[in-house]
Known about the structure:
Helices cover 40% and strands 18% of the residues. By secondary structure, it is an alpha/beta fold. It has two domains: 22-218, CATH 3.40.640.10; 222-313, CATH 3.90.1150.10. A seven-stranded mixed β-sheet has the order 1-7-6-5-4-2-3, sandwiched between helices. The two termini are 22 Å apart.
Amino acid sequence: xxxxxxxxxxTTYVLGPHHPALxxxxxxxxxxxxxxxxxxxxxxxxxLAVQSFHPSAAEARRHAVTVARTATGRQGLIECRGAxxxxxxxxxxxxDGLQIEAALKKDxxxxxxxxxxxxxxxxxxxxxxxxxRVRAACDATTALLVVDETTVGFGRTGTLLATTxxxxxxxxxxxxxxxxxxxxxxxVLARRSRGIATxxxxxxxxxxxxxxxxxxxxxxxxxxVVKKAGIAMQKGIHELLExxxxxxxxxxxxxxxxxxxxxxxxxxxxxxxxxRGLTITATGANMLLFTPPLVATVDDIKETLSVLDGVxxx
Length: 314
């Protein structure tokens, strides 16, 4: 089997675009799914409560910014360079603690909006201690810490939510339910101690049912496989980096989201991979993206990287 390294074309399709359990949940939704989803999400991250549901992840993200501005009475927003940013945001480099400390002190914004692992712009992984510094800097300036998990949440980094893996304490957390084609939605969770009022908790029953089915699968069956497959992927990509120096420059990632930077234009590599039945994408400056579905096994990962290795060896 040759693996699709794009998860069916969307990073958020963590179980692939047509997983049978998700298809079944979508076809036969539970009437009380939204209510049960509230309880389930609040179990995942201690100290947070579901503040609102939204028709799309993008709307949830925008709403989180609005909530932060209302709660603080300020308008400024800081985001990371290379991410999908809101108009007028001040930009800092992801993972640079000094930059965010200085920017928060200078601007006193409503919030710092950040991904745990920044996907757009090259799979940027935070260095140790980064989010501890961010939390302390936000507290010192009374800015809210808004964590965006709409792209690499739901198991992609090896735990159900990347926030818990990094032991982050967000004031607002944004998650996506865009887990398969035809399913769109998102949620904002707020720290209970902030006293932020609950908003609209209306969510299509089919969307909520799919989200619940995905959480069940991830917790009960998939995450253990993800950890092993993630280790295999990291090891295999680092081996490519060492043995194919003519092509490979750098790699970074976590769990089952990785990037490999090439010295040259990746177009010939992509074309050769397609000829061998391997689907892979590129982004930014000569960067290959690896975002396989989380049901991929260690053997799947090894076979896929073997195909890529053959291409780079030519």
